[in-house]
Every structure is written in C-alpha cells, then in structure tokens.
What does this fold into?
Amino acid sequence: MSEGRPPVSASPTLEDVARAAGVSRATVSRVINGVRNVDPAIQETVRRAVADTGYVPNRAARSLVTRRTGAIALIVSGAGTDGGENPFHNQVFADPFFGRVAGGVVGFLRPRGVHPILMFAETREARAQVIAFLRQGNADGAVLVSTHSEDPLPAMLVEASLPAVLFARPATPLPISYVDVAHRTGAKLAADHLVARGRRRVATIAGPLDVPASQDRLSGFRDAMAAHGFPYVPCVEGGFTHQSGEIAMERLLADHPGVDGVFVANDLMAQGALQVLRHHGRRVPGDVAVVGFDDSSAATASRPPLTTIRHPVEDMAGEMARMLMERVDDPGRPVTSVIFEPSLVVRDSS
Amino acid sequence: MSEGRPPVSASPTLEDVARAAGVSRATVSRVINGVRNVDPAIQETVRRAVADTGYVPNRAARSLVTRRTGAIALIVSGAGTDGGENPFHNQVFADPFFGRVAGGVVGFLRPRGVHPILMFAETREARAQVIAFLRQGNADGAVLVSTHSEDPLPAMLVEASLPAVLFARPATPLPISYVDVAHRTGAKLAADHLVARGRRRVATIAGPLDVPASQDRLSGFRDAMAAHGFPYVPCVEGGFTHQSGEIAMERLLADHPGVDGVFVANDLMAQGALQVLRHHGRRVPGDVAVVGFDDSSAATASRPPLTTIRHPVEDMAGEMARMLMERVDDPGRPVTSVIFEPSLVVRDSS
DNA sequence: ATGAAAGCGCTAACAT
DNA sequence: ATGTTAGCGCTTTCAT
It folds into this structure.
C-alpha cells in the first residue's frame, strides 16, 4: 500500500494532472484551454491524464484570474409589488412564457458550459442589487425579459455599460441589443387569414397600448386590413390577461354585434373572448372566427383550440443568449437586434 | 494631479480598504465577515473605509478559499425528450408551477446573498452534468423539482452525498430531505366540502397513479368519503394534463351518468372536465360540483372559477431553500421532511 | 514547445 | 486585539 495517495474525495487539481502526465501545470493548462503550441504527443498524454484523474477545472480559481465567471444573469424584470416579507407571492414568474425563455437560454448556454443565474428585479432595491451583482463581475452579462413597459432596468444596464440583451424591443429607444418578433408581420398573417376565411366585419382586441408589441400588432393588423379594403377596424384595448379579454369581447359585442372575425393580441385574452362568445351563443368559428397571438399553452387549452400566431420563443431566447456571449467576448461590438418571423398556426377557431 | 491613482474602473480590493483604514487586510476581512475580536473603534473606521472605497468582496477569491460558492442549483428534472439540437423545445419548463417554486426559492435566498443557478436535468447526459457540476463545488447544494416519478436524479444526489432537498416526496423511499403538502388532508377538505354541499354521487379523477401525490390524493379522498358513509367512489386515472381531464370526464359521465360531484386531482384536468360537463349540458355547480387541486392559474381562468385545494407553493419552496442552506452549513444534520397544510379555496364550481 | 514563477483577492492559521 | 503569512487552483508572462 502506497501511503502518499491523496484522499479520493478531494477533487484533483491541475498539479495532480501535471504530475500524472509528467509535465508542468502550464502545459496542462494549455491543452485544457486549447492553446496552440503544444506537441500533439504531449497533448494526448495530458488528455489521458485528465481522463484518468477525473480532473475538472475549478471555476473559482479560473474566474479569479480570467475575470470571467462562466455565468450570466437571467433577469425577470417584473411589475413590482413592493414590501412584504416575500415579494414573489404575486404571480410574476408564474407565466409559462418565462419557462420557455429559460429553456431557450439554457439550450444555448449549456453546451458552452455557461450557467444562468436566475434573478428577479421587481423593486428598486432588487434592481440595484442586480446592477451591483453584475458590476462586481459575479456574472459576465445579462439577458433580460421585462413584464412591463416602464422597466427602468434596461436603461440602468446601458448606463453601467454592462453586456446585456433584451427579449423584446424596449419601450423607450435605447442603445441596447434585443431580439424580437415581427409583430406587424404576425398581425398581417392574421388579417390575411381572416379575410381568406371570408370575414368582412373584423375587429381586434389589442394589448396595452403603451407596450411596443401591442402597438405594432394593432397597426400591423389595421394596415393589412386596409390593404384588403377594410379601412376601419374597431379596436378595444385589453391588458393581456384572461379577464381583460372577456371584458373587451363583451364591449366589442355590444358595440359591434355584427362582428364575424376577431384578432386578439394574445392567446390568454383570446381564451377569455372565446368564453364570452360562447356565452352569447355565438359559434366559433361558424359565427365568429378568432385568431390569437403567441401560440402559448392557452391556445391548445382553449375550446375550440385557437388559431394563433406562433412566436419562436425558444429560438429567440437562444439567439438572445448567443448575442450576449458575443458581446461578452467582444464588448466593442455594435448594438444589434434580431427580428424573428412569426407563423400562422391554424386550429379550429377560424 | 497625483499620478499614482488607480483607474476608477478597477474595483477596490481588501488591500485598498486596508490601506484607506490604516489597518491590515486581515482586520478588514474580520469586520466584513463579522468575526468578533475587533475593536469597535476600528470596526467603525473600517466600515467607513469600505463605504468610501465602494468595496465589495470578490466572490471568486472568497470562494477559492472557503470552498463555498454562495450559489445553489435550482434543478428542474423533467421528462426527457432526448436528442435534437435544442432539448428544451418541449414544454418542460412551461408550467407556471415552476415559476412559483422559483419565486419562493429566490425569496428566501436573495436576502442571504445566495443565488440560484437554473439547471435542467432531462436527459442522462444532463443529469451527469448536473452531478459533475455539484461535485466540482460550483454550487453548494441543490433544490430539485421533478416532473416525473421515475426521476433517477434524487438517488444520484444521495449517492454522491451532495446537499439536496426535494420538492415533493420521492416515489422511491430515499434518505433525502423534502418538503411536501399533506395531500390526504387536502383530499379530505375536498370530500368534506362536497358532502357539505349535499353531493351523494361523488366520483374522482386521479392523477397518474405511479406518483405518490396522486396516490395520496386518491386514498385520502376515498377514506374521507368512506367516513362520510360513501364507501365506493368511482375513479378514472388521468395524466395531469388538460386533455386527460377531458377524456376522464367523458369516461366518468358515460359510466356514471348520475354523478353530482367530482374531485379532480389537479386544476388543469379540472378545467378540461369543466368543458366536457358544459358540452354535455351539465350545469356547474348546479348539476355537478367540481373541486380541483393546486389553486393554479387554471383555477381562476376556468369558467366557472374553480373551487380548489390550495398548495402554499411559494412557502414550501422557501422552506426547501432554508432546509438546504441548513444542510450546507452543517452536512451532518439528519434528513428531514416538512409537510405543509393545504386549504380549501371556495369559488364558483361547487 | 515547455517550464518556472508570479499573482488574481481572499481567508485562516499562526504569531505577536 | 491585530498583523504576518501561507496558500486556495488557476492562467500567463517570461525565460529557456
């Protein structure tokens, strides 16, 4: 029995691998980091030693010298309910949408060994913490998805010149990168579809008009309808919630009883609209055709299942992560935005 | 202009603070870490120096010596769709439930300066990565929420003796801590409520019977009904999805047309059941009373809004985080579990 | 192409 | 009660 053997539990260090391979720490470091100028034979030896010892780099040590953490912040910047012991008891993060974004982000990052740190920025204090966290270099950058339009965090990120990418164009123009979907194109798909289905008295339920996405969906829809010869499209503003969809549909029905087609700015509101229509004895799609937006889980849960405009959320989130890493690697890069094309998913509601 | 001034951008180190306060690094470290044996006057001086310099500890450096990271893994161990470039395009994380768990976890951790790293463990490879990540000490422990009953990750965590706490009791007994809700009590609340509402032909739609939660809800419901003098309760097994709820309700209606009350093991299925009932012309709650479970967003989105059993998900998640940190601080602690009491939320479906 | 050695910022003996 | 010092594991000049 050799007695010098270190305990198995302690994970091996570079030093251990170097000894096993009969080379120096520096050489091992080079092959691990893929730096050229290493003899292929030695590379092979080192690789075997790494495998034998089960070596894995210590992130803290590496981070200390490289000033890179291999982590990014995944920030959900929600509408804030200040105060209270536990500020998360609101449903801020209870939207399935965030899960899809998270999935897309992880899908890109994980193969690259980068990990997302989940953060919520719903209060002034929380935002300050997030900024401090990033400034300290505890994460290399941030991807951000906001739930409301007056979110001050994007501006704070720019101000602190921290690498960041947004999901969706900010309400106020800002020198910051983002991914988004072509809302106007999506709205046009809905308009074309409704017209193709023979609808002539078409209305729309818009999202909150202070958010750019809602504005674009509305104006895109109106423009497309106008191009089809319907210059006037009645509109009721909703709040993206199920209930606001119900209320809006009631209003629409009261003001325009003859309506035979509705474009609703998101699926949740469309689901509400569907219920109101049924309640009023209107058959869908027989009497009224309905088209939603997002292709969320609400679209398939609705009765009838909802024809809707599909957001490639996961792809967009993956691209957002890619753009961030690009920026982290080269902070000098110009700000860019990538716009994704939506598609029409036809189900039974139209 | 003094020329020796360091660039403002470089964040100050312990050394800088020590110099500013006229003490040694060690002393500064002591006051920052709240170690006693420091003269109050000096403490004050140091604190001021910290404030003046804007010092914040470097996590990597600290982590390197303490072997603690100040981060934990928040693992979603989902049903796996192996293969494919992007394994997250399934709806694994698109359940609002996970958002609530995340909120509860962050609510506890954030005030303590601990950050959750979001990880998915949906494939064999991903699970191996998660284990490796933890073994390397890149996180101090893990909280885990599984989406299916045969998840091998809990056993792997135990095997590697990594600090971990589960959300929900594992299907196979395992020496691991967890939080859970008293499913049987919740089911009893539903039974008592239905009986109090005068229902005499009560049935139930269960969840998948290989998961402990479903079993407990079913047996708890049956026992409670038996105590009320209803020894036989028809049951159809569902899969916790909206659609499986529809199918189950169809079956129930076909086999037991006289049913006047249904306890459904989760809200999503209950929502589906509601639609089927309406489709068959049964009034809810007039003809059939329905009680769900979870108090998820589906409960309020349903028409009529669902009477349901409320899970204190955020509190449970917070407790899960607390238990983990306790274990991280003292790995010797015995395994424990904490069971939360559910409550009945009466809405319009019963 | 490889090795020696310095040092990233911090904590924790150990010494005083 | 405070200071001195030795690393934690890694990358990266700088020699060779």
User: Anything to note?
Assistant: Chain A has 13 helices and twelve strands. Confidence is low (pLDDT under 50) at residues 1-8, 80-92 of chain A. Residues 23-27, 30, 37-39, 42, 61, 63-67 of chain A lie near DNA strand C (CB under 10 Å from a C1'). The longest strand of chain A covers residues 71-77.
